[in-house]
Amino acid sequence: MSVTTAVSEDAPLALVCGGGSLPLAVADHVAARGRRVVLFPVRGAAAADDFAKRPHHWLYPGQLGRFSRLARSAGCSDVVFIGWLVRPALWQIRPDLTALMLLPRVAAAFRGGDDHLLTGMARIVEDCGFRLRGAHEVAPEILVPIGALTRRVAVERELADVALGLEYLQATSPFDVGQAVVVADRHVLAAEAAEGTDGMLARVAELRKGGRIRAPRGTGVLVKAPKRGQDRRLDLPSIGPQTVENVVNAGLGGIAVTAGNTITAEPARLVQAADAAGIFVVGVPAAAT
Fold first, then answer.
1. Is residue 115 in some structural domain?
2. Any idea what the CATH number is for the domain that residue 165 is in?
3. How many domains does the chain divide into?
4. In the beta sheet, which residues pair with residue 121?
5. What is the rounded distance in angstroms from the CA atom of residue 202 to the CA atom of residue 193?
6. Residues 162 and 229 placed together within one structural domain of the fold
């Protein structure tokens, strides 16, 4: 049964934090605007050291009642989910009484791809009376802008690879698989699946090491774009300094993402790392997707 809660842009923001640097970057951007942030790091994903000096409430996956109680007591009406989270098995969830009452809906959400799971869980949170927001809505500074971010710019051959990568991602969107692909000389080398972008890039590095990739080092592009019809409040593609390192290890020449639809926690460090490595990073028009 849906619960209606009055929403105020000035009310504290509940931030459910997975792993990586994005959660605290979003928290800092929101706080800089004068809005209080209540942190809910998720055990098994968020790093304890990152939250040691900040007020927070730990959550196990499935503790919906605990979250609802603490968020409401803090005056939160808006909720943002941000950071990586490995898809748990049903047996790894620790449901409290509230979650147990909704277990059939939770189980149904797990029967599908990641986007299906996230959308199902989002509806459950909204039915508890909260308004789900995208991290980019409360902290637009994290969005990658359009155009070249680095000193090196993509040449015509690389732009052709970008175009093919975007076409591929659009074609596979209905299957709710991944948000990234590696293309070199108009040849798809790898597509993201359950291993994530970093795992895919590690696979490309191994393929290159084993002589399975003929394209010379410094060629090829990592292309990232959201799935067609995806709820962009929940799982926008992201890049960061670690992405640059993995792209270099994979022997690629650059990174292309859809501008306004991709997020980064540390844009200055991202560009600095890319310039030092001699690769390009470019934000392409979202209309191309």
1. yes
2. 3.40.140.80
3. 2
4. none
5. 13
6. yes
* pTM given for the model: 0.85
| Spatial contact of 223 and 165, defined as CB atoms under 8 Å apart | yes
**208-244 pLDDT, tens digit each:** 999 999 899 999 999 999 988 777 887 789 999 999 9
Q: Is 44 helix (H, G, I), strand (E, B) or coil?
A: coil
- Least confident stretch, 49-63, 77-91, 127-141, 241-255: 77-91
Q: Which domain holds residue 19?
A: 13-140
98 CB-near residues (< 8 Å, 6+ apart): 64, 65, 68, 128
Cα atoms in the Cβ-side hemisphere of radius 13 Å centred on 52: 4
Are residue 156 and residue 182 in the same domain, yes or no? Answer: yes
Helix axes 267-277, 241-249, angle to 10 degrees: 20
Residue with tokens 């040691």: 52
How far is residue 184's CA from residue 86's CA, in Å, rounded to a whole number?
29
